[in-house]
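Hi,

I'm pasting everything inline rather than attaching a file, because the server keeps stripping attachments. The sequence lines come first, and each chain or strand is labelled.
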Amino acid sequence: MNVEKGKICSMQLFFLFAGFVQGSVLLVDFAIGISESQTWMVILIGLGLAIPFVLSYVALAKRFPGMNVVQINDAVYGRFLGKTLSLYYIFFFLMTLSFNIRDVGELYITFLMPDTSFIFLLVAFSATCAYAVSKGLEVLARISHLIALIGIFVPICTTILLIDQMDFSNFLPLFELPFARMLHGIHIMMAIPFCETLVFLMIMASLDKAEKAKKSILSGLLVGTVSLFIVAVRNTAVLGNTQTIWTSPSFQSTRLIDIGTVLTRMDFLIGIAQTFLIFFKCCLFLYASVTAIAQIFNLKTYIPLVLPVAGIEVILAATVFQSKVDHAEISQNAGIIYSAPLMFLIPPLTLLIAKLRNLPNKGGKNDS
Amino acid sequence: MKAYGKSFQKLFILLWLLLSILLCGCWNYREIEDLTIVAGAALDKEGDMYILTFEVIDVAGGPEKNHSSALIKASGLTLFEASRNAISVIGNKLYWSHAKMMIISEDIAKEGLVPVMDWLARDAEIRQTIKIVVSKEKTAREILEITHPTIEVVSLAMDQVFQNKDSVTSVPRVEEWKLFQDLAQPGVSTALPTVYINEENGNKRLFVSGSAIFDKDRLIGYLNDEETKLMMFVKNEITRGLITEKIEHNDIPIKISLEILKSQTEIKPVVKDDEIKFEIDMTVHGNIGEIEGYHFHLDRKGANHLEKHFEELLNKNIAAFIKTIQKEYGVDIFGFADALSARDPKTWKKVEPRWKEVFKNVEVTVNSEVHIEGAAIQKKPIRIRE
Amino acid sequence: MFRYILKILRYTALKSKNSSQDHTSNNGYNEPIPSDLKKSREIIENILHNSSDVSVHEFYFGNNRECKGALLFINSMVDKEEIHKNILQPLMYGTLMFGNDKNLDLSDIDTIKTHYISITDCLKITSLGDLIDKLLAGTVILLVDGSKEALVINTGKRESRNIEEPGTEAVVRGPREGFNENINVSISLIRRKIKSPDLCVEKLKLGEKSKTDVCIVYLKSIANPELIKEIKARLNRIKIDAILESGYIEQFIEDAPYSIFPTVSNSEKPDKIVAKLLDGRAAILVDGTPFVLVVPMVFIETFQSVEDYYSRPYLASIMRIIRFLSYIISTLGPALYVALTVFHQELIPTSLLISIAEGRERVPFPAILEAWLMIFTFDILREAGIRLPKAVGQTIGIVGALVLGQASVEAGLISPIMVIVVSATAIASFAVPAQTDSGTILRYIFLALAGIAGGFGVIMGLLVTLIHLTSLRSFGTPYLWPIAPLNLSALKDVFIRMPLWNMTKHLSAIIWKDADYYRQAPDLKPSPYKNDNSDSKQKE
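And the predicted assembly:
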């Protein structure tokens, strides 16, 4: 039935989840432009508001153990509507993936290797992702704790090194942000790091014990949030008002590390960490995309799809925005709108319908 | 499936090989010896044209020779253009990542910093830790032209001064990012260190000392060493340094240097019925670094006496200094606005439009507290047996 | 696909050709031994093509010398002394001088074996094929006229080296014995360390022509039966003419033949092998080589040395970490140098940047080419140094250090910092001998990646390596275990080594899940001798 044969344990799910949320560290920068020195607050509120939605994903996966979202859609909405919805999911996966691939490219173009060909970066990165995905979910799960470790280690390290430069009065005054902007920031926070975990609807199907999913997902969410939180606090405390003018406040703040003129230029640490984290996130998205497509077409294996989809993603990533300015603008404003119904509406709705129709019991012919 | 997996692997390897063969050695590939490493730059303006003088490190001699520097002059309508025009002089693109110093001429500082700062902030190659100083000479270029007795690259020599700023109180260290932070703060004006040339036995010597104060981004005046030190006390930027003072002890004048170990300043706005007052609470911990002569005996009592004396001194000097600034320049270089907006945003909203006026007449009280913690390695003064 | 079909066809053709030999006997001579001595002698000599080192000694024995017998052996492989004393003497003199008991039939092999031959290692065979096999393996064959059976007598002599300290794995503390080429000696070395009925030794012969003895050694209660089954299956797959070294077997049974990482480990130290057996692994001994294979292998094994466990944990832990660092330096050293100096100069401190730039000022090659040249030269030096006799080998070192290091720097061909980088890499690569091959290849790959795309290339390379390592398995055990998948309790023995009394549990990935085996009692932490009276006693 399911295209994935490998199994992951709940511990690995925890690390997968944490690593995935940490993968959005770079994207906190988008929100900083909007929520300024209140970003940390926005993160916490965003987390609080996102938890119910994330729990709804978990509940969905628990209700249909061993089934991924495409199968669930088919079961709940029937053939036609289900497939349409699944296409929406795939569209979301593909778009988000292309944004993230582009992020890596821009990271390198802007900060590390400005003269390099953009397409080369995208192709090399996507090829690496494709290689990882072709090795299967189990391999991704096995390296997840390393990624999560990097995601927590690097922010803490840089924060410690920057303690000297921090000025906590930068957080004052509290509650000065206009409500509309606060809301906007919260929406970005909910959508980008937290509710993008929608992809786990494709992954939780491979869980060996679906009952333990809730605990590991919540703790993963927490660990991921701690990373984001540390990053936001560090940026605000170090950069203060100026954090809004930089393309990447994280880079900017770590560039200020200067301990005895030897421990300087720590931004490369951020570069490495973010490459690893986004790589991981992209792998999960790519995995979700190809498994979903393979499931829709009832293929036996998703592996033949990996390279073509990765290729399409490169083209998408290279052409989807005209420039960095476009990218930031659209990600901040439009990007989170098209995904909103998928994140906030459809999963709870599916859960509700499944409950009303008492579904998984009826369709109990699935393999256990 | 297995067969496909294998061919996939082959494809993957092929892809990387193709990339590596086709694209080998392009783009960012810059040989290290081909870089023209900029150590610092001086910025002047003539009419509409910016004139940038770069001090580049000359590595041509090989490892046997001490590295020296060369000056390159280029002009352009924008800084970026000027920097690119330098290519036609030196042949290579300038490499900015290691630039330490940006010297800005008085004229440009008077016109405003923001227009020239944009490029510094925008260019990814330039580090945000580049230090910005204002030249008190006619042109900024002159600074780079002098010779330093030990370090041949003037910019690096100047950087050394800032590295050791812990021991000198009179130089504010302003790096680019700090400047932006100040400029972005509502109501706060900034201060930059100044650099000038002093003739000494016919040798031109470089001095990094004092500061230039700005109204927003426009230069409005200079502070001398002593004033700079006081300003930094208020701004809580003192880390180490000295306070030297003459005191009368049993009618004998004695000079005493207090070495500052730690200094903490807090500006507290006190708002009462629309009237804004500021209280500056300062705590200074220090060591006695030097006591002239042998008359003064540093026991607990003597130390208390000194502490009191230094406290009075700081209170008096700082209050007087703030008064002067209020009267003469009327710009908030101390960050009072910042303190007010952080602690009491409502009042700040009210006074923001007319902050300049408010600042001029605002009442400031200084409460300092000095703790003498030790007396270096000497327990008792040197005795002359008579 | 087409190629695959062809392959299968070719294989089946080969199989059908061999099948007649396969099942009947090892060499196709399945006839029984003829009772006529003359005839059998003729046949045997024919089979062996009258090889000159095959001796046939005919003799008469019995009360009246009425029985005719023949000894067949290969001159160089038997102990003649023993033949004289324990075979010929009792048979010829014994039967003649002390008379023959009437009940005994001297043409019966069993009687001869039980009454006259004073050697324990005797075996009765009936088939000609077995006879040839045993003869070629170096035993003495006794044929008696009129009997359809033959006696195989092992005189036990075999040329072999003494037990010496192995050259590849020198230790400061620990046993200095090493395996040698004789498989029986090797097995005895293992047996001497584990005197337990648990130790299983399963023998099989591999190689159509070489008939090499191969032994699988494992501890029955600890090793996973699935693993043993898998090993046997993979070994039995091997159809090859000769096995000359354990490396032959390694290449036929490894999990990832395309990977640059070895998935089968080897050692020539008995204590190391025994330690691994106690972890639930299985060893494969091959006759003719001191290198014993061990499966499954995990990546971190290469960073663990037996000496870690013999010395106290602190230094051992530091050495572990140093070995890991060395591996990183040896693979990434030149690549990072190139990436930093060519792509990311902003990451180098200013003063270092200036001195590197000054050092490279006169160098005519681009940095990447310079690095290629240097590590290539280093590999040449290393290869040359290994092959040469010791005395000459030292000159190579001097020539390498002086000529290639100093002179090329002075001539301005190579920058001094490059020399430092390459020598650091070279030294580091010797710290992890088991991964030398993967380290060398990775070094070239990473250098190429760094030359193409700087830090980005290196990071992508690292990611691919990480994914590759994670996806590898060795006989079912994940290669990067216990790092990925994570096993916290096993991490006690990865980057650091905890004290022995602390490591009570067994390696759970390798060990058989049902095996109820603990390394040691749970509370062995040593503590000072407690005696309530000791203080008062001292006072008295």
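The longest strand of chain A covers residues 258-259.

If the labels don't parse on your end, tell me and I'll reformat.
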